[in-house]
Amino acid sequence: MSFRLTPYRSYIQVWELEDQVTLLDGLVYDMSDPFHYFRRVEQGGKSYMMIGGQDHKTAHQANEQESFRRLEAQVRNLYAVHQKVYEWSSQYYESQDSLPFIG
After folding, report:
1. 36 contacts 43 by C-beta, under 8 angstroms
2. List of E strands, 1-103
3. What sign results for the dihedral spanned by CA atoms 89, 92, 94, 98?
4. Structural domain tally of the chain?
5. Which of 28, 40, 53, 82 is in Cβ range 3.0-4.6 Å of 36 for a Cys bridge?
6. Whole-structure pTM over 0.90, yes or no?
7. Position 52 in a domain
8. Domain range enclosing 22
9. Could you tell me if residue 101 is inside a domain?
10. Residue 65 has what DSSP assignment?
11. What are phi and psi of 68, to 5 degrees?
12. Do the domain assignments include residue 62?
């Protein structure tokens, strides 16, 4: 089964914005390659903006910090930010036929 799966790495950051009005409800993707997605998240009664993306096949990029810097550049280009609250990366798998795994 593992030969039929492709591992990918994805990067996520959570930002506190200067202007809370700019936060959107829902999940929004851009059309960049690699793509980015944005969504509003709440914690402790405060709203934050989460940006994710810069996905690539695992072990196909040597510098993880470069992906975080690109995410930060993307969010600073689009929003007035106060501070970065969290950042992390995760690994996920895609099937060769792009169908979800069930059963």
Report:
1. no
2. 5-17, 27-29, 36-43, 46-57, 81-95
3. negative
4. 1
5. 53
6. no
7. yes
8. 2-85
9. no
10. H
11. -65, -40
12. yes
Tokens at residue 12, please?
A: 């996520």
Digitized pLDDT (tens) for each residue of the chain, 103 residues in all: 566 778 889 999 999 988 876 677 888 888 888 889 999 998 888 889 999 999 988 888 778 899 999 999 999 998 899 999 999 999 988 877 777 767 5
Q: Which two tokens stand for residue 46?
A: 């405060």
Does residue 65 form part of some domain? yes
What whole-number distance in Å separates Cα of residue 101 and Cα of residue 26?
A: 25
Phi/psi at 82 (nearest 5 deg)?
A: -95, -55
Distance of alpha carbon 83 from alpha carbon 55, whole angstroms:
23
- Integer Cα distance of 44 and 95 in angstroms: 37
Burial code of 38-53, b = ≥16 C-beta within 10 A, e = fewer? Answer: bbbeeeeeeebbbbbb
Using CA atoms, how far apart are residues 3 and 67, in angstroms rounded to an integer?
A: 26
